[in-house]
Amino acid sequence: MDVFVQLKEVVPQYLDGVRFIVNDQCSGREAWEIILATAMIVVILGWLREELFLHELSIFERTKLSLFRTIRNLPIIGRKIQEELDKTKASIAKDMFPLPPGVFYNTTLPDNGLSDDKLLTLIEEKYKSLETIDWQGGRLSGAVYNCGKHHDELMAKVYGMFVGDNLLHPDVFPGTRKMEAEVVAMCCDFFNGGSSACGTMTSGGTESILMACKAYRERAYKLGIKNPEILAPRSAHAGFPKAAKYFKMRYIEVPMDPETKLVNVRAMRKKISKNTCMLVVSAPSFPYGVVEQVEEIAELGTRYNIPVHVDACMGGFIIPFAKRAGLDLPRVDFSIDGVTSISADAHKYGLAPKGSSLVLYKNTEYRLGQFYVNTDWCGGIYASPAVGGTRSGAIIATCWATMMSVGVDGYMENAVKIIQTRAYIEEQVREIPGLFVYGKPDVNILSIGSKCFDIYRLGSALTKAGWHMFTVQYPSGVNFVVTKMHTGPGIADAFLSSLKDCTSEIMKDPKAKAEGIAAVYGMAESIPDRSMVEEFVQGYLEAYYSTKT
Question: What is the pTM of this model?
Answer without folding.
Answer: 0.85
